[in-house]
Amino acid sequence: MNLHEFHAEFRNHVQSVMAERASNPDETFPQEELVFAELAMDDVSTAGISEAPEVCHWEGTIRNAKLRISGFSISADDTRIDLFLTHYLGTEHLTQLRDSDVAGVAKSAVQFAANAGTGKLSGRLDPTSPILELVETLERRWHDLDQLRVIVLTDGQTKSKHFTPRDVEGRLIQVEAMDMERLFRHTTGKPRDEIAVSFEQAIGRPLPCVHVADPGADYDYALTAIPGEVLRSLYERFNTTLLEANVRSFLGTRKKVNAGIATTLEEEPGHFLAYNNGLVIVCDEAGISRGADGQVGISLLKGLQIVNGGQTTSSIYFASRDNKDLDLSHVMIPAKIVILREGDDQGRETLISRISQYANSQTAVKTSDLSANRTFHVQLEKLANDTWCPDGTGRWFYERAAGAYAVAMLRDGRTKAQKTRLQEVIPTRRKLTKNDIAKYHESWRGLPHQVALGGEKNFAAFMSALDDTPEIVPAALDVTWYKEMIAKVILFKAIEKQIKAKEAKDTFKQGYVNVASYTVAILGQRLGDRLDLMQIWQRQDTSGPLSRLLWNWSCVVNAVFTRVGAGAQFSELAKRSATWDAVQAAQYPDNAEMIPELRVLQDA
């Protein structure tokens, strides 16, 4: 799949979701730009670029300044905030955008950040405003944030992806474009394309190295030591995108400093090179030359990603963040750099995967972490491909590899008739990603506060749970488990559909996913043993009586959130175990009707 095909498929995806929602009389007629924002933010979250972004369209003015955002993300520790806004074109063909176009669009989000951070916006907002907590967090943490970004989401193609930071009242605001090209890279698993470091700019000279070139190999090799400050700044800029996907999953929610690394950084920074095992880095391009003194050095690394040493990298960053007096000038980190040569994408990615696996095989990272529990995902993918819905005409699609759904549409839907038929068999509403499965599974398992941490973090926790408590799924996934898993998906989606309906707007105003997740968790806890999931699979829907029970219980969950939150964002409340305690303690009404999906309890 190339960039233009990706753009066409993304556009088709937007229109497909539009058509599905427009055909539902219970939903408010969708706006195309809002659907685009939702899908783009989903991809941004899946790629690990931003932490659990939330769609929230808001605009206003202060004096003559126009303020607008389309969504936001607040990290769990309140140290990173991303503001999103859309520049949607809706064109059939990929449109080239000037940098000035993107900068102009970004201005309204920069103005939003500036007015919020300097206290000019909070007093103007209604206490029930969906952006109030975001504005108050910006105001409270304005000078303490590690990162504040404005990300322009567009279906065009920009020349630049990163723009000159804006200085507002002493606060630097990073400005980025997430265009079709950048989304394509991340969706197809090539995020390292945009990561580069110039050592001549970073330290004023090439980085001394030992370079080993083998004309017969598919890679070159270099040994070096990277300055601690360079590594820290790379992590600050690119966050976990700097890390290879499986290393990122292993780190999961860990935002803490390894005790041994912290001690060395504080007490013996000059010995860090001797004590630390170092990094393994892959890159697509390296500038290696011999200087006037005859020494070989690295001037540039482009398309780089860390495949071993994620804990070292993150620990250095968080240690320096938490201790402003920490001096990294004497810290050097040993690094093995594998420079990939030209070749087919599959071969290169296989090589990277094996480097990651073998490089980590002697550390605390388990092979199952590195393979992302490959057996589980392969089995699930096979079940999805082989198991048809009861009507015999459709099935669900499990996207084991990022972008697999789009590839399937392009591969098997070459003509308009073929594409129409394929969309009937596997419509987008039946597409499931790895993060989706983790969300539905862990909600049912009674962990909605974990689910609220966001797609990638919840997925990492789910993968860890498969290692620590493998009995939560069968050793060999079977058709019965698969059908019951899909039934749980249907339950979750049924709740979301009800609480997002236009007649529900007066009751449910925010946090739809959180309310659905908590309601599913309560359902699993209180009725899990009695609920006949196979009936839901057979119906591919919930019965009227069960739907009414789900509505009533969702209202209780929503009321608990409103009561304990005191105006806070549901997305933040949902991360707290105390919220889950309060939801569990609530009273849930029994349905007066007979629910066909409930098994009758047998007398002892």
UniProtKB/TrEMBL annotation:
It comes from the Bacteria. Pfam families: AIPR, AIPR_N. Residues 243-562 form the Abortive phage infection protein C-terminal domain. Residues 36-185 form the Abortive infection phage resistance protein N-terminal domain. InterPro entries: AIPR_C, AIPR_N. This is AIPR protein. It comes from Rhodobacter capsulatus. The lineage of its organism: Bacteria, Pseudomonadati, Pseudomonadota, Alphaproteobacteria, Rhodobacterales.
